[in-house]
Automatic annotation (TrEMBL), chain A:
This is ABC transporter permease. Residues 19-414 form the ABC-2 type transporter transmembrane domain. The chain crosses the membrane at residues 21-44, 175-195, 229-258, 309-328, 340-360, 392-414. The keyword Transmembrane applies. InterPro entries: ABC2_TM. It holds the Pfam family ABC2_membrane_3. Its main location: membrane. PANTHER family: ABC TRANSPORTER PERMEASE, ABC TRANSPORTER PERMEASE PROTEIN NATB.
From TrEMBL, chain B:
Belongs to the ABC transporter superfamily. This is ATP-binding cassette domain-containing protein. It comes from the Bacteria. The keyword Transport applies. It comes from Algoriphagus sediminis.
Length: 441, 298
């Protein structure tokens, strides 16, 4: 055990002391707030500088009225098609919307002319308004007063409450759950890839620099492999920790600097955190939105989520880390590693795609279930489900299988590693790797 | 010191070692010879417990070898290297500690050796900033830093310039004088003759030769004598293949042809003044080539 600790320490320090580590660790979190700042700045600039876009509208039906907005103004005239086009060509108008005489049951022939390609949003908005108008007209023709229509138009939002086996109710919010699953899944995916690769590079370095034979005369290959995997994990965790602190701090600074006031709800939330909840709810008359958000936040099982995140984060990393180490041991140079990356990359990619296509959209579908159970995909798959609430036995099954999966990949990897590190100049094939795995020694 | 009994190892269908028996006495330099692919490295790796034998046993100082013995063994592999981006000091401490030394012990030994080889100023240099010869010195220190009782050197002189090779050679002799047992695996026969007390030769997975270097050489002497004659009388025996090396001085190379050295000598004495009479001893190189060739033919 002492020796594993020595390896862990070396692997950790060798990486953390590098200038590139410092650079990547400090610069990466700067990128996010910087990007945010640029985007906000651009948006502010654009809004200020942009001239009003005037659109000439010719409506031969005398039926449609389009309300002007901050960005677009509509001017109605009796110009002909040719005159309208000319206005656009001469630059007098931003665009020209031509509505010929149309049959309300089958509206055809509406055309928009513009100097630029209009964006999708703009066209969709125009279409929406025209459709609404036509619908109103047709309702009117069928004898229904549009006033009644607008009167009966109702806004509704569904409040979703999760009911567990014990009958405890908790308010949930799909968007929040989605967000948690999304971020957790991506973090795990990135972590496995970035640091798995570092393990592989490290193994290849020891092999190609011929350090390995000196090492394995002092320490068991398995200890060496595990030491490296754990040491690199430490580097990753350190980096993540620094990022979280830096991103948090800088984002607050940047948003503060740009004078973007925190939305009221958020401010109240922050206030609420400073006060004991009970006192808060009694003393301050809260509007229902804030209460709702507070309830959602209360409804999230942060304990389970944090615990599962740490578990799947490390479990997934260890499971794949061993495989990356095995690949590194089998080849002489990073370029040769490519051919063996495939079976490692594919399940990760499947899990990643599965997260977006299945898990986050329907956490309880059969596909989602399997994605969150099979050890190769469960670190990413289960994190997509966990915020929505997963029965404890499924979570336990998935975690148990992940532990078994980790033991299995490590066992396989150790067999390949043990032989691979001493092989120079042989181009390994899958067949050869299989032979190494089978060889008992 | 080291006893190897009936050791065999195969990789798939390829037999790497077959029934090897070896005995390395305490305090000697033991030459392990053999052509490439003979099985030397496999044998060394088994002694270092990097791989396991299929069959057979190894005893170190009378005890069956175990992972705890790693501390007693120092190993300089033929394929060797160091972490390029790591500082000399950190690297030596790391290797020393992997061998089981405490941090304090490791520090004092590293200091001792860096002073001894006059390289203390390299401490905070990275290996990539050192020349190849310098790196080799560091490598050598890393091998012996834990003062092993048994030192295994696989082609220790490859990559050294003559000056550094000499320094390392002297260190090896110094270690031997302090009682370290050394196994030297090499192709360089001149260093074998210079350094080794005993040799064993492995060819095609089998041991084909084993013993003190003197005995080995004696058993291979081709019974050829070199003679130099001056003041030659009548009847020069030209059939001996004489060469005149100086006016009136002739050099012969001749075999005993079934007789004894005394008979040969008296024959020459009757011809003139014998100024030199030497038995030709084979070099290890010749024995090596002879053995490998006869194995190929037989």
């Amino acid at each position: 055990m002492d020796k594993i600790w020595l390896v862990i320490k070396r692997e950790y320090l060798a990486r953390v002391k590098k200038k590139s580590f410092l650079l990547a660790t400090l610069l990466t979190p700067l990128i996010f707030p910087a990007l945010m700042g640029v985007i906000v700045w651009l948006a502010v600039e654009e809004r200020g500088s942009q001239a009003l876009r005037i659109i000439e509208v010719v409506d031969e039906n005398d039926l449609f009225f389009l309300e002007s907005s901050e960005q677009y103004a509509f001017s109605f005239s009796d110009a002909t098609l040719e005159e309208g086009k000319k206005l656009v060509q001469d630059g007098d108008r931003y665009g020209f919307l031509y509505i010929p005489k149309i049959d309300l049951t089958d509206p055809q022939g509406v055309v928009y002319y513009g100097e630029d390609n209009p964006n999708m949003n703009f066209i969709m908005r125009l279409e929406n308004r025209l459709r609404k108008k036509i619908e109103e007209q047709r309702l009117l023709q069928s004898g229904i007063d549009p006033k009644i229509i607008s009167e009966i138009r109702t806004d509704i939002s569904i409040r979703s409450i999760r009911l567990d086996d014990e009958g405890t109710e908790s308010v949930s919010n799909a968007a929040v759950n989605y967000g948690i699953g999304f971020v957790a899944g991506i973090l795990i995916y990135m972590f496995i890839f970035i640091y798995g690769n570092q393990i592989m590079q490290g193994v290849i370095e020891e092999k190609s620099n011929r350090i390995i034979e000196i090492l394995v005369s002092s320490i068991k290959p398995f200890q060496l492999m595990m030491g490296k995997i754990i040491g690199v994990a430490g580097v990753g965790l350190t980096q993540f920790l620094i990022w979280i602190i830096l991103i948090g701090g800088l984002t607050t600074l940047v948003t503060g600097y740009l004078g973007m006031q925190l939305p009221q709800e958020q401010a109240m939330e922050l206030a609420a955190q400073d006060m004991p909840t009970e006192e808060f709810s009694e003393a301050v008359p809260v509007n229902s939105d804030v209460a709702e958000i507070l309830q959602v936040i209360n409804g999230i099982d942060f304990f389970t989520i944090t615990l599962s995140f740490v578990f799947y984060f490390l479990g997934g990393y260890l499971l794949y880390g061993a495989l990356f180490a095995a690949i590194g041991s089998a080849v002489d140079a990073p370029s040769e590693a490519q051919q063996f990356m495939f079976p490692v990359t594919i399940p990760l990619l499947v899990a990643y795609m599965g997260l977006f296509v299945f898990v986050l959209n329907d956490p309880n579908s059969t596909t989602s279930f399997w994605l969150s159970i099979i050890p190769l995909s469960s670190p990413i798959g289960m994190m997509g489900r966990v915020s929505y609430g997963v029965p404890w036995y499924e979570l336990l099954l998935s975690m148990g299988l992940l532990v078994l999966g980790f033991l299995a990949t490590t066992w396989i990897a150790a067999k390949i590693y043990r032989i691979g590190i001493l092989m120079h100049g042989t181009k390994p094939s899958y067949k050869l790797l299989w032979k190494w795995i089978k060889s008992s020694e | 010191m080291l006893e190897i009994k009936d050791l065999s190892k195969a990789f798939g269908n390829k037999q790497a070692l077959t029934d090897i028996d070896l005995s390395v006495p305490e305090g000697v330099i033991f030459g392990l010879l053999g052509p490439n692919g003979a099985g030397k490295t496999t044998l060394i790796r088994i002694i270092n417990q990097i791989i396991e034998a299929d069959k057979g046993e190894i005893f170190l100082e009378g005890q069956k070898i175990s992972p705890a013995d790693i501390r007693k063994i120092g190993y300089l592999p033929e394929e060797r290297g160091l972490y390029k981006k790591m500082k000399v000091w950190d690297q030596l401490i790391y290797f020393a500690r992997l061998k089981g030394l405490s941090l304090d012990e490791a520090k004092s030994r590293v200091n001792h050796w860096m002073d001894k080889l006059e390289i203390a100023s390299w401490k905070s240099k990275k290996i990539e900033d050192l020349s190849k010869g310098m790196a080799q010195k560091i490598q050598f220190i890393a091998t012996i830093i834990h003062e092993p009782r048994l030192l295994i050197l696989d082609e220790p002189f490859s990559g050294f310039d003559p000056v550094n090779a000499e320094i390392i050679k002297n260190e090896i002799i110094g270690l031997k004088n302090k009682g370290t047992t050394i196994i030297l695996s090499t192709h360089r026969m001149e260093s074998v003759e210079l350094l080794c007390d005993r040799v064993a030769m492995i060819n095609q997975s089998r041991k084909i030769l084993d013993g003190p270097i003197r005995e080995v050489k004696n058993s291979f002497k081709p019974e050829i004598f070199e003679v130099t004659l001056a003041d030659i009388q009548e009847g020069l025996p030209l059939e001996f293949g004489a060469v005149e090396i100086a006016p009136g001085e002739w050099h012969f190379k001749t075999s005993l042809n079934g007789g004894t050295p005394n008979q040969l000598l008296s024959k020459f004495m009757s011809l003139g003044q014998v100024t030199q009479f030497d038995e030709v001893k084979p070099t290890m190189e010749e024995i090596f080539i002879h053995q490998v060739k006869s194995a190929e033919n037989g």
